[in-house]
Amino acid sequence: MDSASIIWENQQTIMFEEGIVLRKPSWFKKLFFVYVYPIMNKAYRQGLDESLINELESSQQSYFRHLKFSQHLKLKKKQNLVDLILKYYLCMLFANELEYFLKGFLIQLVVLFSQLAMPLLTKYIIEYIYESDKDYHQALLLIFLVMLIRILNLLSMSHSRFMMKVYGYDIMSVISLEIMSKCLKISLLSNTERSIGEITNLIQVDVQRLIQAPNNVVNMIIIPIQLCITLTYIYKEIGSSVIVGIVIIFLSILQNNYVGKQIVKAQKLVLKSKDNRVKETTEVFQMIKFIKINALEQFFQEKIFKLRQIELKCIKDRLKYFSINVFMGWLSPQMILSFTFGLYVLLGNQLIPSKTFPIIGLLSILAASLQLLPISLNDLLETKVSLKRIENFLDSHELMNDLYCKNKAAAASSALEITQGNFFWRKECIEDQQILKNINIKVEKGKFVSIIGDVGSGKSSLIQSILGEMIYKINGEKPKVYRSSPIAYVGQKPWIQNATVQENILFGKAYDEQLYEQAIKYSCLSLDLEILIHGDQTMIGEKGINLSGGQKARISLARAIYSKAEIFLLDDPLSAVDAQVGNFILKECFINFLKGKTRILITHALNYCKYTDYIYLMQKGEIIEQGDYQKMQNNLIFQEIEKKFEFDIQQQENQNITQGKDVQLGDEKEIDQNQEQIKDMDKTKSDLMTIEERKKGEIDQEVYIKYLQYKKNLIFQTILFIVLIIWILSQIMANLWVTEWTSRYASLSDHYSEITYFWVFLFLGFIQSMFAYIRAAMIVSQSIKSSSQIHNDMINCLMFAPQCKFFERVPLGRIMNRLTKDINSLDVEIHINIAQFSTKISQILSNNLLSIYVSTYLLIFPLIIFFYICLKIQRLYMKASRELQRLELISRSPILSYFTQSLMGLTTIRAYSQSDFVIKEFAQKLDYNKQIVNYSIAASSWFLQVLGFASLIVNTFAIGYCILYTSNPSFAGLILTFAASLDRNVQQTVDSLSLLENNMISFERCLEYTKIESENLAEVKTVEQSWPNQGRIKFINYSVNYRSNLPLVLRNLSFSIDSQEKIGIVGRTGAGKSSITLSILRIVEALQGRIEIDDVDISKVQIQRLRSSITTILQDPVIFTGTIRQNLDPLETCSDEEIMKVIEECCLLQLINDRNGLNTSINEGGDNLSAGEKQLICIARAILKKSKIVLVDEATANIDIETEQKIQQAIQRLFKDHTVITIAHRINTILHCDKIFVMSKGELKESGSPSELLKDKSSLFYEVYQEAMNHK
């Protein structure tokens, strides 16, 4: 079954509101695309929605096509098929689509021969006009033949067009799945050659090139055949004079070859520069919260703008060749015609109408093909560049899974064994940077093992080596790893999907009620599901934006429990939950429920080690000691760590007090109170992620006006209009001149010499080509400026968009879809559409005016009827096309979001062996998009047919007039030539208008992001350069909510913080702790009341000035691509000496010394650093900022005991003259504070020194402290 049957054979279940049922179409409906009319009518009357898009048949779905493609690809690789096109394009062609492709190719041949037959019939009509004794039966036969050939051409053209486009989208979908499949076989941690931004560009830009590839391949085959037939006919008519035309064609081919090579070079630079911009833009918006709180918008905005300027320069260089191709595309046919006719008459021949106009008709068809030839060639060359990029990616080194072996002897007792374990992260550093050294471990089945060590000691890397994410030295001794399966993995940074809670837990597995309830119970999610309005059907935002850190960790744990794995790899999950929850999970889940399973736990909390069967102590990538808890207590290093830990062991073991009392343990009264509070909070989050808005109806005139305003220069637009007029006039003059030239041999005219006719005709052709070049160059120049301006406006608006109202509600994929796919449309496509539309509309106007001028004014009437039908049909088609295009663009956002989301969770996906599930999910999103596109293509083909049948009115009238009334054969030839091309010109005009409108929808979508409501950037009060120099903070009757119509998160809050005072804030989930810091930073704005810093109302201070004056240390470390120096001091305000001093204070000296100093490169997201190292860098960055006010969202949960103590001491010492507000995650981090604030339900319930509050046994703080003390 061919791809076209996606629509043809699968139309039985769509039910419209009016009761219209779209059933399986008959052959008649297939032939004339009648089956698509109900959808278009629905779109015209009421608009379309997603429910009307039915699923594809299983045999047509991308997943099954990809399976066939993958099998064939492997087969071809075995046969050493390495050629790029054969490997990635023809491979698909011959795998399972050859029959369909050949069918389309044969139909295209019918298109070709029916097109060429029309000029030949023109010859017989002109000869009939010459006859004195006319046979009207012959006239009727000629009219019948013309109509028959026109209908044949019309049907074949529409179906060829439909089949090639559908096939192109099939290829695009399959290659997209192949890229996703490859992503699931590589590690972005060890493969630093690839970034998320670059891979995203492959999906958003490179793969899109494949859509037009089948049509371009057919053009490259058909056009030479057409050329041969045309030249053969011309040779038959005018003999050796055609040689000069062949020479010009040969020179044109050489020119196209040269330009093509330049285009390939330019396109490589364009795509490389686009990769860099997309990579930087993706990273910026992933860490937008960090950028805002540090007032770094301008810094990162300039980085994006610089990369954008480089990209635009490359695009301009590429588009210069587009203008050259336009010039040569118009000049070549004119030169062929001029020199061929010139040589013909110079050899003493007569240029009679019966010879001239068939040749002109053939050459006009050939001219269109020759204009299309360089475009198709250039598209194929650009496709080749994209395919080469895809090929390079698909040839990337994959995970080194060959080190896994089946040890039958070990299988009976061991769950995991590693011998000779020497592992690396990066291939290029393989000689000088070994991460894991001489790892030899053996974990027996059912044992509970813990791994401990300092920050950067290699604990997480050991887990990653077990999962196969790391690499080994190829020419060295290969490690051997034995592991039983299946495996469950709970990462230090949980990977959460943008799906429901249940879907995150099931992760593609069948629903088992009993197992599901157990997973909920032992991950402590029961109360959360009761509190959430939609329970386990609550939709989780992107990256778990509407979940707390503890909830994300526990959902990740529930996923592991539900997987029924035999080995559990637990990378410090208990650091994300509080002491009470951690104690329950450790004892009830890890020890009891998972008893009999193999558990490997990474932890910094030594008190957990006594519950494990075996302990591994790591240092600098090596296991320096191992044994059970009793044995390890005799080890000096372990004893030293334990002593530091016992400094305040009860306090140290408390994890994330701020997560609150969120399990079914403890005081029921507290649970009830907290439940109501979290219910309110969930109401604010249930509608967190906004649905992407889809405009309906026509594009607002405001959008077109705005696009013209981006072009700005009125003088430039006036010149462009004059250029277009001159170009039109040159076309009209050239047509009249050739009519004059051929009329002289019918004794109707003899005004000029042959040389004069030749040179004037050649000159008019050159003027026409030159002004076509100028027109194209001007349109390209202005379009690039418009694209540059709107991109900059989007970035500017996005950078200063509010965090809570925008970035926490809009998925990153939706933002990036506009900054990649839509911007690419404005960069590359829209100017071509404008050029094509202006060309075609000009040709229609000039040709019709000229036809009326040389024939009769009666021609106006069929033209009026034709254009009236066109107008009515165009309104129907254009509205349906707009609706489908908007649906298509919206359907692309989930594709990109799911793709980028999957890239961030590759380790988790592979650990659970769910690669096939992810590919199927991705395929479903591709199929939904593809089905919309298929409807759009069918609608376009239907429209082409309707226009063609309507044009038969004009054709019949023109032919009848020529046969019955015209006495001038030259005029008859001109009229017939124009009439034959009328429907093609109108169809191409509406096509170009449709494409222009589609690209204007991209502009419309981009324009929406230039109207995003900005943060309040106004400056009401100018403060001194030294402000704040005291650090006093005062809340006065302050209330705030995150968005309008949502509950207050802070209620009438009033308190004062003195200069240099240290404040610790505690409270349960939703108490309002983080809201205090967000309010000070004006991430949220006051609903009532005010905040004063050093007696200045912060609402009147310019927001950038405020944030740049405050230091914030976040719980989740934020690292960006660059060097360590750039991460520590992005604005370059500190000397190397200052930086090195802080590095030493923050225990980073060893990291610096072991690598390339301050110039050590950091991968995307800091993937080449441990979690602890990333946190230390963030703390060092905060210290270097030297602000008088410091806000600390305690960030030492993933740091070992010794390093944490050093950091806490460094913070206390270095910030002793600063005002510090710390949100407490562990009791020990705030016991040194001057005051403790206890928050509950957005209100300050208690405040005082730690000793004062602890003396009062009825205080909330005492209760929290006792909870911590009681859970060891």
List the helices and strands and how they pair.
Blueprint: H1 5-8, E1 14-15, E2 21-22, H2 27-32, H3 37-45, H4 62-78, H5 84-96, H6 98-130, H7 136-183, H8 196-206, H9 213-238, H10 242-286, H11 288-293, H12 297-346, H13 353-394, H14 408-411, E3 414-423, E4 436-444, E5 448-453, H15 459-467, E6 480-483, E7 487-490, H16 501-506, H17 513-522, H18 526-531, H19 549-562, E8 567-571, H20 579-593, E9 598-602, E10 614-619, E11 622-627, H21 629-632, H22 636-645, H23 649-652, H24 668-685, H25 701-711, H26 714-743, H27 754-799, H28 803-807, H29 812-854, H30 860-904, H31 906-911, H32 915-964, H33 969-1008, E12 1033-1040, E13 1050-1057, E14 1062-1067, H34 1073-1080, E15 1088-1093, E16 1096-1097, H35 1103-1108, E17 1110-1113, E18 1122-1123, H36 1124-1128, H37 1136-1145, H38 1149-1154, E19 1161-1162, H39 1171-1185, E20 1189-1193, H40 1201-1214, E21 1219-1223, E22 1235-1240, E23 1243-1248, H41 1250-1255, H42 1260-1270
Parallel strand pairs: 5-9, 5-10, 7-8, 8-9, 14-21, 14-22, 17-20, 20-21
Antiparallel strand pairs: 1-2, 3-4, 3-6, 10-11, 12-13, 12-15, 15-16, 18-19, 22-23
Helix pairs in contact: 3-30, 4-5, 4-7, 6-7, 6-9, 6-13, 6-32, 6-33, 7-32, 8-10, 8-13, 8-30, 9-10, 9-13, 10-12, 10-13, 10-29, 12-13, 12-27, 13-33, 17-19, 26-27, 26-29, 26-33, 27-29, 29-30, 29-33, 30-32, 30-33, 32-33, 37-39
Low-confidence stretches: 1-23, 78-89, 91-96, 648-687
Strand order of the largest sheet: 7-8-9-5-10-11
Sheet with the most strands, sense and barrel status: 6 strands, mixed
Give the strand tally.
23
Protein name: ABC transporter family protein
Organism: Paramecium tetraurelia
Keywords: ATP-binding, Membrane, Nucleotide-binding, Repeat, Transmembrane, Transmembrane helix, Transport
Membrane topology: Multi-pass membrane protein
